[in-house]
Amino acid sequence: HCDKAPFIKASWNQVKHNEVDILYTVFKAYPEIQDRFPKFAGKDLEAIKETAEFAVHSTRIVSFMSEIVSLVGNPAVQSSIDLLLVKMANDHKARGVTKELFEKFNIAFMGYLKSHTTWDEKTENAWKVVGDEHHAIVYSILE
Ligand code: HEM
Questions:
Q1: Which of 61, 103, 104, 110 has most ligand 1 atoms within 8 Å of its beta carbon, as the pocket-test mutant?
Q2: How many domains in the chain?
Q3: Which domain holds residue 74?
């Protein structure tokens, strides 16, 4: 995916430090995702958004994505992308997180990306092709 990587990296660079804003957008769109976090379940999103715990967890998720994006486009490290995704999926499966929840997460996430970056057809295609490949790995593990 050497040809797709520059488009992914260029758009990711525009939002990679919006950690809190990204997780807030996901929880706002899908409260059922928020409810799967013991720390956040049933709490007022507007209030938890301002907490250190929320910043810490947002940064864990977004840093994971940054790690993947930094590896994309380098064939020599494809197996490490696969390894990271398999580990992440297994960790979430163990917590009872489903494929359906991940699909919802992705819908909200892609909406955020489109509305906060300079978006065009090549960028959209790059995220679709590389995203589909990564989701196939994650979805083969989740139920
Ligand atoms: C789809 C809905 C999701 C749910 C319900 C979910 C749930 C959780 C929970 C309950 C934790 C443990 C939090 C804690 O330490 O108290 C966690 C950790 C984590 N999640 Fe998620 N997660 C979701 C999606 C994602 C996605 C899409 C990513 C990244 C692409 C991600 C990356 C992480 C990372 C990196 C951690 C910290 C490491 C770990 O403990 O596994 N999560 N997640």
A1: 61
A2: 1
A3: 5-139
Cα(37) to ligand 1 centroid in Å equals 8
- The answer on pLDDT for 54 being more than 70 is yes
pLDDT at 1 over 90: no
Question: Does residue 46 line the site of ligand 1, with CB under 6 A?
Answer: no
If pLDDT is split at 50, 70 and 90, which confidence band does 94 have? very high
The minimum-distance atom of ligand 1 relative to the CA of 91 is 41
CATH number at residue 48: 1.10.490.10
ipTM of this predicted structure: 0.96
Per the listing, tokens 């989701």 go with 135
% of residues, the chain, pLDDT over 90: 99
Pick from 131, 141, 129, 88: nearest CA to 110 = 131
Tell whether ligand 1 has an atom less than 6 A from the beta carbon of residue 24.
no
Cα torsion through 63, 66, 68, 69, rounded to 10: 170
